[in-house]
Amino acid sequence: MVLEHGIPVPVGSEEDLKHICLGHKRSGGGEGLGRRRIPITSDIVSSAPLAFIYHNFLSKKECEYLIKLATPHMAKSLVSDNETGKGIESKARTSYGMFLKRGQDKVIRGIEKRIADYTLIPVENGESLYVLHYEKGQKYDPHYDYSDGGSTTRNGGPRMATFLMYLSDVEEGGETVFPSAKGNIEKKGISIKPKMGDALLFWSMNHDGTLDPLSLHGSSPVIKGDKWSCTKWMHVDEHKIGKTKGV
Q: How much is the pTM?
């Protein structure tokens, strides 16, 4: 991992990646709501795009708190028009969601600080937490979080990484899929099953600032039960809250 413009960018061999991953195994995880009986640990799930799973990142109480906070305010999830930046409905994304303002209370500040500690990306570079709810049949087709010169770059530059936290288990379906990713086996593509409290970190850009095409990802349709998750998109530079909202 090297620093470009003060921002951590992942590069290197498989051994380097293992070192980074092991370096993030900590016994605590900072202050938060609820006590963890199991420490936060991490595994590499893909080398291209670079992606980690952090097990037990959120406590059960934190997951329940975020769901309870968001539930009264859920609305149809939108996609961002690349020219105007306005949110528009799309058949490619059929979930519901809402933004929690960055730093709006002690619990959220604690989670955001923990994300910054584990990603090495400043809190100020992150958008507000976005809570998502997928009911049976709902999904998000494969897409990129990164955009070059689009509306999401006008406030903080490109989205360099995404931190996706799973707030619930899912009985069947709802996997996070990377169709082109290089996992730990020969087979192309990876699929990650949601587990309450786990978090997925993946990088959308290469060390030279260009899009990593292998970061294409989506959410498979929920087949049985429902799915709750919470996303933090992180930019190369400071993202000012109160300006453009990412969707």
A: 0.85
